[in-house]
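**User:** Hello, beginner here. Are you able to go through the protein record under this note? It all follows right here:
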Amino acid sequence: MRIAPGNLPDPQTDYEAKSIAFCRAWISGQTEFTLSTSGSTGTPKPIRLTRRQMVASARLTGHTFGLKPGDRALVCLHVDYIAGIMMLVRGLELGLILTIIEPASNPIDAVLAENESIDFAAFVPLQLHTMLDAASESLPVLNQMKAILVGGAAVDHALAERLQAIEAPVFSTYGMTETVSHIAVRRLNGPNRTDVFRMLPGVEWGLDERNCLFIKAAATDFAVVQTNDVVEVIDSFHFRLVGRADSIINSGGVKVQPELVEKIISKVLMKEAIPSRFFVYGLPDERLGQQVALFVEQTTWDENRIEQLKIAVRAEMGPYAVPRKVIFLPVFAETPTGKIDKKAIASQLRF
């Protein structure tokens, strides 16, 4: 379905009807909207956003990525959540032509079927993996874009390397429902790729006593939003995301940031071109309080590979960060937005 400025077509599916209903509410001047958080770090909860916040966020995105009236944007993230809703708002506020498709693992298929050209899009990592699996078809579409955003989940080393095949600039985004989508970005491909996020203009920020980020901006209605994200400050405009304070594993009195362990494991797996999804999580341990556990999806590994991972983690982070248990599961539970539901997976285990 295509939405151009001043033209709302009749929906043909329930999903299109949901998208059109929001667009009509927006055009009518509705001033408040209730969305749900993704539930990736806790129970999903409703959150009320004002039109003023959403307009500020959309204009900031347009300025950051040079979007102009008439540019074509692809909406392929679920419009029940902030990422999809804000693509609609950007289109309506910036005068973009929107191509709306129901979320799919390879949204480029629909673009090719309609013979569309796209200037701007936002994807989750799984979608980019799938599109790059069909690179001969997807790259001609991706390469012509002004900017490609990746959000919703962390970009691992394997995907980061694959993104180098894309000529268009690809950015990882940092944000949440409470900040009305992204308030910081980092370049993932090309000679300017970096592991450091750049805060967007107009965003005030700082750290609490835990080194967790807090944010104030027009998109938050100038209220302070306190996060649980531990960051390393580079300078007044840049920071490096370390991990979440509420995911820290206390193993024998030693605090282990699981995201750092995951980065080490990802580097080892990338060298062997192993595509398995995995995550590190703290499980109860009678002696240590918590033990570091590695969860792996859809496959099993031999003892030699597991030992290689343990050696790599021990060398960089010490013995307490080494996974004491490796758990193989056929499929990971996911949140409604497609993120791995780590808490739900761990809570179902019985030891």
User: Anything to note?
Assistant: The first helix runs from residue 14 to 27. The chain has ten helices and 19 strands.
